[in-house]
Amino acid sequence: MPKILEGKILTIKTPKTAIVLIERKFRHPMYKKVIKRSKKFKVHYENIKIEIGDNVVIKETRPISKDKYFEIVKKLKNTLKK
Question: Label partner for 8 (CA 20 to 30 A): which of 27, 50, 51, 80?
């Protein structure tokens, strides 16, 4: 079963590769404070129009390169437009 995650696009400088920031929140087991952790993933994309700041859904796939093992499934609608 592949992992499916939601994140925000940080950069699209390299061809067919985007860097997506995934944030997760969890409660500390002892102190009960909500902690936010984030991780960046290199993600493969083709035939999808994306821009920096877009929210996307990514899915785990076979390794495409040394660092890329996720691909963009779809672009989510952003509620805030500037």
Answer: 27
pLDDT at 73 over 60: yes
Evaluate whether 21 touches 40 at the Cβ level (below 8 Å): yes
Are 45 and 54 within 8 A, CB to CB?
Answer: no
Instruction: Put residue 19 in one of left, alpha, beta given phi > 0 → left and psi -120 to 50 → alpha.
Output: beta
The domain spans of the chain are 4-75
- Report residue 71 as tokens: 């691909």
Looking at the DSSP bridge assignments, the partners of residue 34 are: 27
For domain 4-75, the CATH architecture is Beta Barrel (2.40)
Tokens of 53: 């700041």
